[in-house]
Amino acid sequence: MAERQHRIDPAAVEGDFFHVRDLLESEERKKLDRVRDFLVERVAPRANELWIAGESPLDLRDEIRELDITGTYADDHDIAPRSYLLTGMLGMEMSRVDPSFATFFGVHAGLAMGSIRECGSQEQKDRWLPPMVRWDKIGAFALTEPLVGSGTALGLTTTARREGDTWVLDGEKKWIGNATFADLVVVWAKDVADEQVKGFVVEKGTPGFSAKALQDKISLRGVQNAHIVLDGVRVPEANRLQHADSFRDTARVLKVTRGGVAWSATGCAVGAYEAARGYAVRREQFGRPIGSFQLVQDLLARMLANITACQAMAVRMARLHEEDRLGEAQAALAKMFCTTRMRETVAWAREVFGGNGILLEHDAARFFADAEALYSYEGSRDMNSLIVGRAATGYSAFV
């Protein structure tokens, strides 16, 4: 009996099985398509090359600026207003092509700019955000420390000591993306006077500040993560974020960026699925494409199910954000769920390739490796589960 031939749904090929893109307004879809073209033409061809070299695409700064996707209308009125749904889907598109690029962009536009937007005074926003929108200044976000990862809420060892109109920062930070080349680094430190976490903007060239790139990473190699040493770094009071008075203020920034990681994780899963699907219809064994075999189709179906579930949660998260109803626990659940499903999906994608799945030339290996970083940063799965558990029960299980 001849096999039945079915029309291939383009949305299935692209990992958008439930047509999430159609939820955008017409102009938003045009912007998404413009960014997708940029990513395909300018980012994708060098993604593996930069991953191997451990370099960030700093030469694309001017082109990124022209996309008009950095910052918000509140940062600079020349920026077209953008919905949270479009912002999330842009992050998904970036990670779909290159999670390293998505992280490079997100550290600057999400964590660094978000810290200033959420915790800075109006004067500070006016001083720093416009040049960051234009990529004249690149930002970094320094919270994690060599000995303090999940325990940053209570256990920061980097200290801030006030001397008149100056603050003196001492300590170390680790895993700080963009820090080797950043013009502005938002450093979170514990005030020795009141034991509260505060935020400071350290500008490039400040004496006592050094950032050394971490070597031998196996994930997100296109991101310049650094080990920072702060040795008597003197920061003026004018550079202390005026509305960052405790870790609760830091958490306001993390709530938004954790939602962004959920979108990025979904994009990473989409990229891995698309690579696997493309390979499955091209690669032949036993005289036929491997995509015609039941076991391979089962893996592709599982991947699409994970991706679609993550997209559905992320879309609802964006709607809640639009309504100013997004809570910390909801963002934590999205980050926890989407990164877990991503990790599962990229493993299945690599499996479709067999031995070829460990070669960068097929892209699946890069998505597989990069997923490990997305799974871990912005709060591990376990820590985010405890945030959700606290909201569900009313009891805190944090030590």
UniProtKB/TrEMBL annotation:
Domain Acyl-CoA dehydrogenase/oxidase C-terminal: start-end pairs: 251-392
Assigned keywords, A-Z: FAD, Flavoprotein, Oxidoreductase
Xref: Pfam families: Acyl-CoA_dh_1 (PF00441), Acyl-CoA_dh_M (PF02770), Acyl-CoA_dh_N (PF02771)
Species of provenance: Streptomyces montanisoli
Cross-referenced InterPro entries: ACX4-like, Acyl-CoA_DH_CS, Acyl-CoA_Oxase/DH_mid-dom, Acyl-CoA_Oxase/DH_mid-dom_sf, AcylCo_DH-like_C, AcylCo_DH/oxidase_C, AcylCoA_DH/ox_N, AcylCoA_DH/ox_N_sf
Gene3D superfamilies assigned to the protein according to its UniProt record, in alphabetical order: Acyl-CoA dehydrogenase/oxidase, N-terminal domain, Butyryl-CoA Dehydrogenase, subunit A, domain 2, Butyryl-CoA Dehydrogenase, subunit A, domain 3
Name the record gives this protein: Acyl-CoA dehydrogenase family protein
Domain Acyl-CoA oxidase/dehydrogenase middle stretches: 140-233
Acyl-CoA dehydrogenase/oxidase N-terminal domain ranges (all copies): 27-134
Family the entry assigns: Belongs to the acyl-CoA dehydrogenase family.
